[in-house]
Amino acid sequence: MRGMITALKLVLKEIVYTLMLILGVTALLFLFFNLMPGDFSGKGGGLPAFLDLLRGLFTFQFGISVVSGIDINAILFPAFRNTLVLTLGAIFISLVIAVPIGIFSAYRSFKGYSWPLTLFSYIVSSIPVFYFGYLVLFFVSRQTGFLPIFYPESSVGKYRILSYVLPILVLGVGNDAVSEIVRLISSELGRVMSTDYVIASRARGEYQLASSINEGIAIPLVSIIFSKIPFLIGGAVIIEFVFNWPGMGRLAFQSTLDRDLPALIAIAFLSVLMVRAGMILKSILLYIFNPGASRE
Amino acid sequence: MKRFYFEEEGIHTQEFHVPLYRRASAQDVFFIGFGLFVLSYLIVFYLISVTNIFIKNPMEINISAMFQSPSFDHLFGTDFLGRDIFSRIAKGTEAFFLPGLLSITISTACGVLFGVLSGMYPRFASKIISYVLDIVDSIPRLIFILIIIVLFRPSIYLIMTFVGVTSIPKITAYVKAKVQVLKKQGFIESSRALGLAPTAIIFKHIVWFSLKSVLVIHATLGLGEAILIETSLSYLGIGVQEPIPSWGNMVAMGADYFFQGRVWLSSIPAITITVTIMGLYLLGDGLNAIYNEKVTR
């Protein structure tokens, strides 16, 4: 019961702090908005204009694009959904690749069998994601014809899942989270597996991995995965450009070329929401895995 | 992972002076050696491209010699205008070398300043600084840079300044945590009791003696990040613009011929980027291991 109350307090505190941060971000974006040369509606006007912008952002009415004249909502939300799918899928792929390698190299250090895998994780995470996209397209689509290189408009509904495969795979493998997860898990798990309580539990006949999974894997993973979300959104900009994926990143790039600041501000707001939601989730999960550390 | 016998006895590592070369395992030596190799070729490329000796003119167009595969005359072949790819790669270091150093300098200097302030004065300064830095940290870096490009102009120095600004929060967090631990230790207390000025305590005993390793690791990883951002933006066409070579726009230009089977046009700059960034990451992680710091990228 007391644990529940502490957890609720923690979550409430996080949410209030997040709201304050979002207010700060909006103020920063408003400052940018006013710094931009040129004149369009919503610019200047001091505090009332800021309140207008705030109301627009918090009710998700982002207004009209200054370039195309279309309502931003109509194009932004489908794009946001696509980017969400891409980002979550990429996190999943990164975990599937990196966690087994990390566990394996915690058991056998560099001189054993794990060094090719460790090296692989480094190569994969430092290869530029735009080139990796071309490589995958070249080998999977051009040479073997396993997946089509592009999906015609009429067949989108039919092959929706298939068209998700390559971008998610490339972003999941090619972001630099893989080598970092491997390094963190192998060092933390190695440290935890030689602590006294794990050795004692091993002496009692329990599995060594099972008793060190909380401190050795769960806590490092939670603390790293959610802080990677901003980088994944950045990677999504490039991946969406390479694969022509109708997401938020491509929209951001397009509005940069068009100098369409209102659209860009809406995109920045949505990605800030995404990042902060990840942070709230992170603190909740850390509380679940390690209640002692969150208490002040 | 235990490296020394006295760690098993529960004795704090810091109490002994272990020479760095003894702390390193074979893996760390490999990592750091590879990283130093990468750093040295970056510096060599930069120097030969600044002094313009040993390389061909990277801008010289030769239509009769386009799409040549790698040979002794053209080490990495020639591109779609017959320009020598090796000299363009050497010249491409200019696109990120000084801007990258600028970005590292900004992030390290401001990170140390804010970190020390919020570590030493946790009541007032810490709250404001962490609020402001959390705002910067919440906006994804690439989106932030895109906003900057819309507002001002796509100049690489400006972009790298903001890459530096967006790396401040991470360094600040590490410095702050370190200062909070160091502040309570005996030698700081005794130096305060001896009447040493606060600036001397902070800059000599905390920053110089205890934070060097963190800053070196961050600088290494920061250079890798700067290169990655520069190449990505140049690839997208909003960083360094075409006649001036950059590794990113060389990949983008070569990508048009990738599916025709002329693979080396974009592969060679891409492999160079991969090896360089991997070297910097390995250097950072190797230094991390021997200094026992837990710095994440």
How would you sum up this structure, described in words?
The complex is a heterodimer of chains A (296) and B (297). Chain A is mainly alpha-helical and 296 residues long. Helices cover 78% and strands 0% of the residues of chain A. Chain A contains 14 helices and no strands. In chain A, helix 4 (110-126) packs antiparallel against helix 7 (177-193), helix 11 (229-243) crosses helix 12 and helix 12 runs antiparallel to helix 13 (261-289). The longest helix of chain A has 36 residues, at 72-107. The mean pLDDT of chain A is 82. Chain B has 297 residues and is mostly helical. Chain B has a single domain (22-50, 72-291), classed as MetI-like fold (Orthogonal Bundle). In chain B, helix 5 (125-138) runs antiparallel to helix 7. The longest helix of chain B is centred in the middle third of the chain and has 36 residues, at 85-120. The two termini of chain B are 21 Å apart. Classes of the chains: A mainly alpha (296), B mainly alpha (297). The interface between A and B is large, with 62 and 49 residues.
Secondary-structure map:
The complex is a heterodimer of chains A (about 300) and B (about 300).
Chain A: H1 2-35, H2 46-58, H3 72-107, H4 110-126, H5 129-143, H6 160-174, H7 177-193, H8 196-203, H9 208-211, H10 213-225, H11 229-243, H12 248-258, H13 261-289, H14 291-294
Helix pairs in contact in A: 1-2, 1-13, 3-4, 3-6, 3-7, 3-11, 4-7, 5-6, 5-11, 7-10, 10-13, 11-12, 12-13
Chain B: H1 5-8, H2 20-23, H3 26-51, H4 85-120, H5 125-138, H6 141-151, H7 156-183, H8 186-193, H9 198-210, H10 212-236, H11 247-255, H12 264-291
